[in-house]
């Protein structure tokens, strides 16, 4: 159990705040797209990108970070947010409508990974985070490609999670209001893999692509 | 066609940059969760929340903005990002792995909606944006509830979209590399609605909950 800092304490709907690593890491491991926030010339920017978790470190794919990385040499203050949407919650009153979701916010200083071995390993972990098994089936990065890729390292130290699950919670007097009420479950689902036009003969869809899911 | 500003011009993979309103608005209309970035005490924060679009204005549900709104009276610089994930793109080389997605970034100054009539209408539009038809089936907000809700208004003036669709694009020499290559399509899907435990007799699932989809 982590003690929230004044910056990570959940203010609105504080009962939804979760500060234990287990919950936060399960959310980070189910997701694979984060929204990275940073500041450039007093303007906040929020960019979606992929990431992977290695113990208490987030590795963030830097493709989205070109604007951020322009003048970066000693690290930059970031907020990395991962949101999993689980459903729409239809209450009787508009006011009590809600969503079921699980989200994590990590604050800290992100640094560019410069060591080539760490960078290669970070990319492998990001790749395995997104599609376990794909790395060894691929043509691995050349030195030139590695140089053209940037990866950020962010220690997971200051974080909080926020979780809302379950049915609607209406005010007691609204339970007689005559309307349907309940939850529309939402999830991200994978469709049938689509072969590339130039597939070599004999190449069949690998199992990690056939039954792709984020559930662990 | 909008001319991108230095702040919204897509830097990385510039061929994916899209600056016309039609594309950007279609993305904003298909999504309903945005990630709002703002700065507090030099620290960026990124918070997921819901929104609705009314012509050239984004209305953002302020439930997530408690931290942001603390000392707010004249508006705050924000970045609102909406990301739709369409698939994983498995190339032959790790370097050319990608994702299919559509995203929009809107920069500007968000202001709190104070006029009660505008706030009520903004909430209606956010509600209709998320589940068309739900507003009139619900117990509408009281004055007290309206006061307890905050809504932000953000003009959609400075924005860019980024779109990647289609199959993998490998380096020519990699097309002989013996691995499967293609796309795993991803989409957000709705499951069977779950009745609330305290549903009144005779209340059946409305059509907007039965076949919920974001496709327009």
Your description of this structure?
The structure is a homodimer of 216-residue chains. In chain A, strands 2-3-4-7-6-5 form a 6-stranded antiparallel β-barrel. Chain A has 216 residues and is α+β, with helices and mostly antiparallel strands. The longest helix of chain A has 15 residues, at 116-130. Chain A has helices at 21-30, 66-69, 116-130, 143-147, 207-210; strands spanning 17-18, 33-40, 43-54, 57-61, 76-90, 98-112, 151-155, 158-164, 182-190, 194-195. Chain A has a single domain (14-210), classed as Electron Transport, Fmn-binding Protein, Chain A (Pnp Oxidase, Chain A), CATH 2.30.110. The first copy, chain A, has 5 helices and 10 strands; from the N terminus they run βαβββαββααββββα. The model of chain A has no long low-confidence stretch (mean pLDDT 92). Helix content of chain A is 18%, strand content 37%. Chain A starts with 16 loop residues before the first strand and ends in a 6-residue tail after the last helix.
């Amino acid at each position: 159990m982590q003690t929230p800092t004044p910056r990570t304490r959940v203010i609105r709907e504080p009962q939804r705040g979760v500060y234990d690593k287990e919950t936060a890491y399960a959310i980070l491991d189910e997701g694979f797209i984060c929204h990275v926030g940073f500041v450039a010339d007093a303007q906040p920017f929020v960019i979606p990108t992929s990431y992977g978790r290695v113990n208490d470190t987030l590795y963030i794919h830097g493709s989205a970070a070109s604007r951020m990385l322009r003048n970066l040499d000693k690290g930059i203050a970031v907020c990395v947010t991962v949101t999993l949407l689980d459903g729409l919650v239809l209450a009787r009153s508009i006011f009590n409508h809600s969503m079921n979701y699980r989200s994590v916010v990590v604050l800290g200083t992100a640094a560019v990974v410069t060591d080539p071995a760490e960078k290669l390993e970070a990319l492998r972990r990001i790749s395995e985070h997104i599609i376990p098994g794909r790395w060894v089936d691929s043509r691995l990065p050349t030195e030139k490609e590695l140089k053209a890729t940037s990866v950020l390292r962010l220690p997971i130290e200051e974080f909080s999670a926020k979780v809302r699950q379950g049915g609607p919670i209406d005010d007691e007097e609204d339970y007689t209001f005559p309307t349907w009420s309940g939850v529309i479950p939402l999830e991200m689902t994978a469709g049938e893999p689509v072969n590339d036009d130039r597939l070599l003969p004999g190449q069949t869809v690998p199992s990690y692509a056939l039954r792709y899911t984020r559930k662990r």
